[in-house]
Every structure is written in C-alpha cells, then in structure tokens.
Amino acid sequence: MENNKTLHLLTHHRSIRHFKNQALSADVIHTLLEAAQRTSSSMFMQQFSVISVTDANLKKQLADITTYPFTKSSGHLFVMVADQRRNEFIGQEADTDTHLLHDGDRSLAAFDDAALAGQSIVTAAESMGLGAVILGSILNDAQQVIDLLHLPKLTFPVFGIAIGYPDEKPNLKPRLPLEAVHFDNYYQDPDKKTLDAYDQTIEKYYAQRGTNNRVETYRHHILHDMQVSPQKRSQILIVLKQQGFFEN
Amino acid sequence: MENNKTLHLLTHHRSIRHFKNQALSADVIHTLLEAAQRTSSSMFMQQFSVISVTDANLKKQLADITTYPFTKSSGHLFVMVADQRRNEFIGQEADTDTHLLHDGDRSLAAFDDAALAGQSIVTAAESMGLGAVILGSILNDAQQVIDLLHLPKLTFPVFGIAIGYPDEKPNLKPRLPLEAVHFDNYYQDPDKKTLDAYDQTIEKYYAQRGTNNRVETYRHHILHDMQVSPQKRSQILIVLKQQGFFEN
C-alpha cells in the first residue's frame, strides 16, 4: 500500500469539535489562505471568496445559526463564499451582458470552487496539527448569513470552517464500504446486504465512542434527516435565486 | 512561514494535462479512493459516488464531450457523482417520504460532498508524484454523461478527474492576489487597481509560458467566458431538474 505523510493525513481525517482556547496566528491563517488560493478552479475563474469572521458579535450570531458553540470558540472561523460577483464587476466595467453568470452551470462552478478551496484549507490545517470541522449548518439560515456578512448578489455562503488546536482525538468514524460508493464504468444501485453490514458497523461505533454515544444505525441516521429539515434550510432555493444563482 | 510537505504540495499545485503512457496500479487507485472516502461530508451523509471509467469506448466518448484528448489518455479517469440516490434507496426500503432529497439544500450538499472528495483525490494523487486535472468540461453535455454512465435520478456528474504520471512541469499559474479573495468579516467589492495589477501579472504569464502562449489578461479571459458558453452547458438547470435536483 502506498503511503506518505499527506496520505496518512487524508486517510485519518476526523472532524474536530473541541478546541483549545488558542487563536491561530496571522502566519498560520495566511498559510491556509495560500492553500485555498492555489486550488484548482473551474475554467481558472477562481469563483470563490473567503471571509475570516473575527468580530465577536458576528461569531456569536453565526454560532446561534449553526447551534454549535464551537463556531465562536474555535481558533479561527472561515466562511467559504461562492462568488460570481467579481466576474459580474468585470462585466459591468466593460458594459457587457452578464446574464450567463446567473445560469445553473456558473452557479455550480462557484459552489464547486468554494468547496474545493475549502477542502484544501482543511487538509492544510491538519498538516499543521490543527483540527477542523466543516459547518454546513450555517445554511440553517442562509439569508441571515448573507445579511451578517454583507454578501451582495451573485455571492452565497457555502459552508463555514472552524479551525483550532484540537482538544479531543475522536476515533475514526467508519465510512461506507468502498463497494457502496465506487463503481467501474456504470452506476450501481445500493446493495441491501452492504448497507446491512454498514449499519452494524455504525451501530457499534456509536455505542462504543466516548462522547455522545447512542443506539443508531446508518439507516436510522439517513431516515431521520430525510424526514426533518430546518424550514429555512429546505427553502434555500428561494434564497439562492434571490442572490442571482440558478436563475436558468 | 509554516511549512511541511503537505503545505508544499497544496501551495504548488498545477493542473497536469500531459501524461506518460502509464496506467495507475490498482493499489494506487485504491489509495486515492480511501482518501475520497475519509473526506468530510455534509451531516455525515456521504452523498457522493465515484466512477472509474476504464472502458475504452466510454473514455473516447467522454474525451469527445470534454474536447480534451487527455481525458482518454491519462493514467486513470474518475467521474465524481453527486448522489442522493443511495439515500432515496434507504427511504424507499422504509416506505418513507423522500421529497426532502430533492430540495436545493440537499442538492447543494451532494455537489459539495462530491467536490470535497474530489479535492482529496487530487491532493492524494499529487502526494504520490502523480499529476491531475479536474474536468468540469464533462458538463459540456451533462445528459450524455448521465446516459453513458447509467446515472439514475438523484445522481449527477460533478466533474471528472484525469490522473497520471506527469509528462510536463508547467510554471505555477498566478492566482488572484489575496486581498481580492479574502476579507475580514464583510464582503468587499472588487478593487479596480487590484484587478489592473493582476491583469498585468496574467498577461506576462501567458506571454512567457512555454506552450500555448498568448496575449490575454485576466479580464479578457473572464469577459470571453461571460459571452459564450456551450449551449447544453448554459441549459444545465433543465438536466439538473430532470435528475431530481433543485426541485424546490
């Protein structure tokens, strides 16, 4: 089996949700941003931005939205932003039609670029001994995040990333077996037996882990979140369109 | 400045488009997939799948769609798939309402998960001395990719990744300066002077690079792609909705 330090990091990722009370230095933050900048982007359009949330009041309000106190108590908080506004600015300077920036393709490109850069930040952080967790939960109220961070049309918050010095070392959380997520040439529908075996693995993991242990299989987890979603989150398409994305 | 091998990789990424005629071993492919599997996913729902395209005819057709011959001549070709079908399968087994899987929130989650895992694959590949390029261009004809790879409803091709042993070492392509993409607390609209300076940087880069050199600023590049888009690509929202995404 191939191995090196980077592979070890990538194959031993665990999200960290308990951080020591220590802020990241400006130097470390700069290094994380360099990793984000260098990431591939769709057609070299670099359709993302990153906001460092440092204001205590903003952090508190974001923590309320995510419901996770570590949103405000981590060593640093980034919000990754899908960004077609910069391209629109260039189009407006040249007095050019900018309608293409609103279509589904460019919308996906901006979200992809933000996600790719965000994953580089996570990996870069972990390589320095930091821990991180991606906070999709900022989308519990996307409109409020837009208002708080003054996000103009053609920008959208994709996820937050809370980063800091880890104050826990959780066990690795078992992933779906490879045969359930990887196929040769053609998509394969899920296999009941594979899911049965994975249910048992996850049930054992939840029962044995040190904190927040519970009785839950993978199917339980998926079914629960299929039945309930925060109302504002299930209506996010309205906000996406208000911001000028997925218009056509 | 912080440094380690992983940071060096991340801050020296260049996309590779010329590969040696050498296929990746099964062992290397397995390692890349392990990196994908371990990546964070939205609410631990693992809403992505990966297809290894090995069939020569499929590769040829995908190369025609992307217009890049290296799509079929790289050492390996992955297609990252946004996948809510696995969750739908679990919902159908339990005879549960699955409508939430079609909303904008779950659609974005699936695309995010696929992009995050894809970026882990790129970083893992580069750590082994391989080169990679992300192929958003498979979306030049999303419907055909869906047909070719037998992608059912609630799945969607996000991008391809061509990987192989590099047969080039391009210069690092200059990125937008940090002040154009990173802000404290509040979004900042682009600054004309920053874009002017970056235009000059990019113009010099394109003029001096070894292959495919040309006279083009960053603004030229952005403006060109704002005015023309492959027709099927600019109508991708229709295909997204046909596949059951972004329904509400």
Model description:
Two copies of one chain form a homodimer. Chain A has 248 residues and is α+β, with helices and mostly antiparallel strands. Chain A has a single domain (5-173, 230-242), classed as NADH Oxidase (3-Layer(aba) Sandwich), CATH 3.40.109. Helices cover 47% and strands 12% of the residues of chain A. Chain A is built from twelve helices and five strands. Chain A has helices at residues 5-11, 26-38, 56-66, 70-73, 85-93, 104-127, 142-148, 178-181, 192-208, 218-227, 231-234, 236-242; strands at residues 48-52, 76-83, 131-135, 155-164, 182-184. Chain A has a four-stranded antiparallel sheet with strand order 1-2-4-3, sandwiched between helices. In chain A, helix 2 (26-38) packs across helix 6 (104-127). The longest helix of chain A is centred in the middle third of the chain and has 24 residues, at 104-127. The radius of gyration of chain A is 20 Å and the shape is globular. Chains A and B meet through helix 1, helix 2, strand 1, helix 5 and helix 6 of A and helix 1, helix 2, strand 1, helix 5 and helix 6 of B. Chains A, B: It holds the Pfam family Nitroreductase. Chains A, B: Belongs to the flavin oxidoreductase frp family. Chains A, B: Keywords: Flavoprotein, FMN, NADP, Oxidoreductase. Chains A, B: It comes from Pediococcus inopinatus. Chains A, B: This is Nitroreductase family protein.
